[in-house]
Design a protein that fits this description.
110 residues, mainly alpha, 6 helices
């Protein structure tokens, strides 16, 4: 049967049928391929460093912890990654302004 006839019989596009034929030829199956890439974080193996940062700077905000982590390790992480890491470690964050943020507020007022 031609690719066009198969496409019309199953009400799919011709390109999909071509893709499936090529996949069957090269891989030997029609299983769906895995989507996305595995996520990598510098925080997965740095729990001791994060605990030390929180102990040294208990009033630091998550953004400040990201900056401190980048200064200490040279690897930048996002605020959401830092938040997930803190939740996994069971370290709650206070909702106060951090030391650095307080300094910035004072400097901006002057």
């Amino acid at each position: 049967m031609s690719i066009r006839k198969v496409a019309t019989n199953f009400a799919v596009s011709k390109s999909l049928v071509q893709k499936l034929v090529n996949q069957q030829r090269t891989e030997g199956n029609l299983q769906p391929k895995q989507t996305g890439k595995p996520q990598f974080s510098y925080l997965t193996s740095a729990s001791a460093e994060v605990k030390a940062l929180v102990a040294a700077h208990p009033d630091a905000t998550i953004a400040e912890l990201c900056e401190l982590f980048a200064l200490k390790t040279g690897n930048w992480v996002s605020k959401s990654a830092m938040c997930r890491c803190l939740q996994k470690l069971g370290l709650n964050r206070k909702k106060k302004l951090g030391i650095v943020a307080k300094r910035r507020q004072k400097e901006s007022k002057n």
